[in-house]
Amino acid sequence: MIKANHRMPAPNEVPRTDCIRCGTCCKKGGPTLHAEDTPLFEKGILEKQHVYTLRKGEVVRNIDETLVVLEQEIIKIKGQAEAWTCMFYNDDQRRCTIYDHRPVECRALKCWDIREFKEVIARPRIQRSDLINSNDGILRLIDAHEQRCAYKTLELAVKGLEGPDSEKAVEKILDLLQYDHYMRPLLMEKLDLPYHTIDFFFGRPLTTTIRMFGLCVKEEGDSFILLPEVSHPAGA
Ligand code: SF4
After folding, report:
1. What share of the chain has pLDDT > 70, as a percent?
2. Number of domains the chain is built from
3. 109 and 190 together in one domain
4. Which of 129, 161, 192 is the last residue of a domain?
5. pTM confidence score
6. Residue 176 reports pLDDT greater than 70
7. Residue to mutate (ligand 1; options 7, 26, 33; most atoms within 8 A of CB)
8. How far is the CA of 202 from the centre of ligand 1 (A)?
9. Partner of 131 at 20 to 30 A CA spacing, among 35, 163, 223, 235?
10. 154 and 105 in one domain?
11. Window from 26-35, 115-124, 149-158, 218-227 with minimum mean pLDDT
C-alpha cells in the first residue's frame, strides 16, 4: 500500500522534545510536494527523476493510518530501491543530503509535535502540470494516458471479475496493463525521456499498482497472466 503521509513514529515510541536524528521519519518515506517546493526544481535541487506521481484513484495510507483514495494526483520523492527510505537520506551518516533545501513537509515534521506538519499537509500540493512547460506536448500524452488507464476504469474492470462476464473483465484488465506497460518504453524512445523520469510522467506502472486490488501479474513472453496477490492483499 502506498503511504502518502505515513512518516510519523509509532505511537509506542518514547516522546521527544527535539530531533535526535533517528531518521525514522525519512525511513518511512519521502515527502509529498507542495506549491512551496516548486522553487527546488527551478534551482535544480530536485529533478523529475527524483520524484514519482501517485495518480488520482490510487489508494494511499493517511497520516492517521486510514486508507484513502486520492481525489487528486500527488508528487512524492522516491524511495531507495524497494525500501520506503527517502532517496535523499544517507543512512550511514544519518542525515538528509539536501537538508538545507528539504521540502516543506520535512521542515514542518517534528515527531514530538505534529501540529505544524498537519497544517502543511493541508496546503495545496503540486501536480505534474506544475512541473511541465504548458507548451510541452507530453501534457497531451499524459492526458491521453489518464483517459485510457484511469484507476476508475481499472477498478470497474476488477469489480467485473465478480460478475457474470468475468472473462471480459480479465480481458479488460490485461488490456489496460499491457497498454500501460508497452507505451512506457515506446515513449521513452520516441521522446528521448530518461528512464528514471517515466514514473513522474505516467505514474507507477499498473503492473505494480494492480496489487492495491489484491491482484498481481506474471509476465509470460509478450503477454500477462492475472493472479491473486498472496503477500500484499491490499497493495504494497
Ligand atoms: S528530503 Fe531529507 S528530510 Fe525529507 S524525507 Fe528525504 S532525507 Fe528526510
Report:
1. 91
2. 2
3. no
4. 129
5. 0.89
6. yes
7. 26
8. 24
9. 235
10. no
11. 218-227
Q: Is 86 in the pocket of ligand 1 (CB under 6 A)?
A: yes
Of 129, 145, 163, the domain-final residue: 129
Question: Do 162 and 144 fall within a single domain?
Answer: yes
How confident is the model at residue 88, as a pLDDT? 97
Tens of pLDDT, residue by residue over 46-70, are 999 999 999 999 998 877 778 899 9
Nearest to 87 by CA among 77, 95, 98: 77
Q: How far is the CA of 184 from the centre of ligand 1 (A)?
A: 28
Which among 88, 57, 80 has a CA at the least distance from the CA of 70? 57
In a domain, 236, yes or no: no
Q: Among 86, 91, 93, which residue has the most ligand 1 atoms within 8 Å of its CB, making it the best to mutate?
A: 86
Measured on CA atoms in the order 57, 59, 62, 66, is the torsion positive or negative?
positive
Q: Specify whether 32 is located in the same domain as 146.
A: no
Give yes or no: residues 102 and 32 share one domain: yes
d(CA 207, CA 143): 20
Provide the domain limits for residue 166: 133-228
Asked whether residue 233 is assigned to any structural domain, the reply reads no
Cβ atoms of 2 and 72 within 8 Å: the answer is: no
31 lines ligand 1 (CB under 6 A): yes
